[in-house]
Write a structure and sequence with these properties.
Number of strands: 9
Structural class: mainly beta
Order of helices and strands: HEEHEEEEEEE
Radius of gyration: 17 Å
CATH architecture: Beta Barrel
Strand order of the largest sheet: 1-3-6-9-8-7
Distance between the termini: 50 Å
Strand content: 35-45%
CATH topology: Thrombin, subunit H
Number of domains: 1
CATH superfamily: Bacteriophage SPP1 head-tail adaptor protein
């Protein structure tokens, strides 16, 4: 069996572990004013899942994964904050980009639902079984 055949089999297995669902949106460069708060926010365009991905049985499949068991709590200017090292995994065909915002819409872990992450860095490689993105948790 070739490395390519093994990679394709491994991709199917990796996607089988992606039990969470999400949507992703890409900033368009424009701004939209929130009618309730009056605050300007980036205008976003839906990019994942695409209608083709939904038709192929991918309703926005993803997986939230911790990369480091312990979060860091740095102190900056008298303000302490928590930095979590997380990844989001997607099928290789997801075609997402750095800066896209991902909202978890369904999860086996109810504490993940509603969280919004910004894609920061894609772990690249020839024989990837998933798109593994380092992410930032978006907070107010």
């Amino acid at each position: 069996m070739s490395a390519q055949e093994l990679t394709l089999r491994a991709r199917v297995a990796a996607e089988g572990l992606m039990r969470d669902q999400c949507t992703a949106a890409r900033p368009t460069g424009g701004l939209v004013t929130d009618p309730e708060t009056g605050v300007d926010e980036p205008q976003l365009a839906h990019v994942y899942p695409t209608p083709e991905q939904i038709a192929a049985g991918n309703p926005g499949r993803c997986k939230v994964q911790t990369t480091v068991a312990q979060a860091a709590s740095p102190d900056a200017g008298g303000h302490q904050f928590t930095v979590e090292n997380l990844q989001l995994h997607f099928p290789v065909s997801a075609e997402l980009r750095t800066g896209d915002q991902v909202t978890i819409t369904e999860s086996w872990d109810p504490q993940l639902v509603g969280l919004v992450f910004r894609l920061v860095e894609l772990a690249r490689g020839t024989y990837r079984t998933a798109d593994r993105w380092n992410v930032e948790l978006v907070t107010a």
